[in-house]
Amino acid sequence: MTPSQTKRRLGLLSLVVSVGLVAIKFYAYHLTRSQAVLTDALESIINVFTSGFALYSLHLASLPKDENHPYGHGKVENLSLGFEGGLIFMAGAFILFSAARSFLHPHPVGQPDWGVALLASTAVVNLAVGVLLVRAGKRLKSVALVGDGQHLYIDALTSIVSSGALVLVAATGVVRFDSGAALLLGGFILVNGWRMLRRSVSGLMDETDTAIVTEVIAELQAQRRAPWIDVHNLRVQRYGANLHIDCHMQMPYYFTLEEVHSQLFDIEELIKERFAVDVEMFVHADPCTFAACSLCLMADCPVRVHPFRHEVVWNVHNAVKNERHHLT
């Protein structure tokens, strides 16, 4: 089974589970008339919409590059995450409003034992499926699957808190435990919706993924060869699971075009082997200048005018700048 097929099957699993659990939670609300249970059920409705959109985004992301999408369709996974975060944020705002009104005007809660049993069962299912989606999403580099799985984590937590509120109401007779729990859950859901929106915007705006950039630079440093005099202006963009990497590599100016091409090919291949996803890498070759002699590792350089002093170790701070390195 290909990674794309695995993603789509997991997305379908999430959608089917979400539909089934929404039905169970609304039945629990019918039995209890609990504000906390209603909060849980409303949040789960969002699961259905977001799981459906995530499934569609996974289908789009699996499509090959074409004339209109030369970098592929992977960015749609970030859009899916933003859609999910936006719906969760709006649900959290509505839940806060509804819970505040219920806290001011509490009403009795009925059959809490059935409510606890039903919600506890949904929490177990959500937690199991959420763990599965997050682990698979991280392995397959899918932000849509990870986002969907984290949403199920949230859903499981809301079910646990709602169950706890029902237990407290049954044990103490204090109805405001129910609406108080709904207030807490509403705030928690609101914050998590905002965080998902933030991650979505970061991906769509190509915010630097420091971890990936660090890995790329560390691999170049570990495999460094003498002709690779200096690297700068290194950038990494993520398109779904795939990576687009480009940088400038300074090489001896007297190298033939064939020699330069051979070095660039080796750089691209070693980076592609480092990552378990599709990598598109473009390296721009810059001719060296005499200012680079003091950091150049070419022991047999025929045109050196300055003695070698020491190597500049590439890292995330100096390799991403759009300027050649030199020693002062």
From TrEMBL:
Residues 229-288 form the Cation efflux protein cytoplasmic domain. It is a multi-pass membrane protein. It is found in: Membrane. Its main location: membrane. InterPro entries: Cation_efflux, Cation_efflux_CTD, Cation_efflux_CTD_sf, Cation_efflux_TM, Cation_efflux_TMD_sf, CDF_Transporter. SUPFAM superfamilies: Cation efflux protein cytoplasmic domain-like, Cation efflux protein transmembrane domain-like. Keywords: Membrane, Transmembrane, Transmembrane helix, Transport. Residues 12-205 form the Cation efflux protein transmembrane domain. The keyword Protein biosynthesis does not apply. The chain crosses the membrane at residues 12-29, 41-61, 81-104, 116-134, 154-174, 180-197. Belongs to the cation diffusion facilitator (CDF) transporter (TC 2.A.4) family. NCBIfam families: CDF (TIGR01297). This is Cation transporter. It comes from Hymenobacter ruricola. The lineage of its organism: Bacteria, Pseudomonadati, Bacteroidota, Cytophagia, Cytophagales.
